[in-house]
Amino acid sequence: MAETPVLQLRLVVETGDHEAALAFYRDALGLTELEAYEGDDGARVSILSIPTATLELSNVAQVRMIDEVEVGRAVAHPFPLTIRVAFEVADAAATTDRLVAAGAEPVAPPTPTPWRSVNARLEGPDGLQLTVFQELGPAG
């Protein structure tokens, strides 16, 4: 296997309220804080870990189809600024409840998908759209 030139993916999310975002992603969602730095003029960054990451490239038709499956209508922010972060979790319903209690706006409840997962759509801090999904495994 050829060595990949990319060693890490970092999705940088700008937030208007660092403490609220940290409480949401670290405390409510359960991501591990690896590093945190502070700089001049109140600059802050927290680097949170996810065990594995993928980059999913979806065309406009796919984004519309996912919206239809998860929510029943178009809710993604308009192209070309459509960004949605999806987190695989062990229990989509419990995670959805926990994130709503932590301040997420529910967009659609946990919904079975044609690809054998249960997906819920939320709006997180600062308007970032999130999907939490639970893989159901093979049919039968």
From TrEMBL:
Signal peptide: none annotated. Residues 5-135 form the VOC domain. InterPro entries: Glyas_Bleomycin-R_OHBP_Dase (IPR029068), Glyas_Fos-R_dOase_dom (IPR004360), VOC_core (IPR037523). This is VOC family protein. It comes from Lysinimonas soli. The lineage of its organism: Bacteria, Bacillati, Actinomycetota, Actinomycetes, Micrococcales.
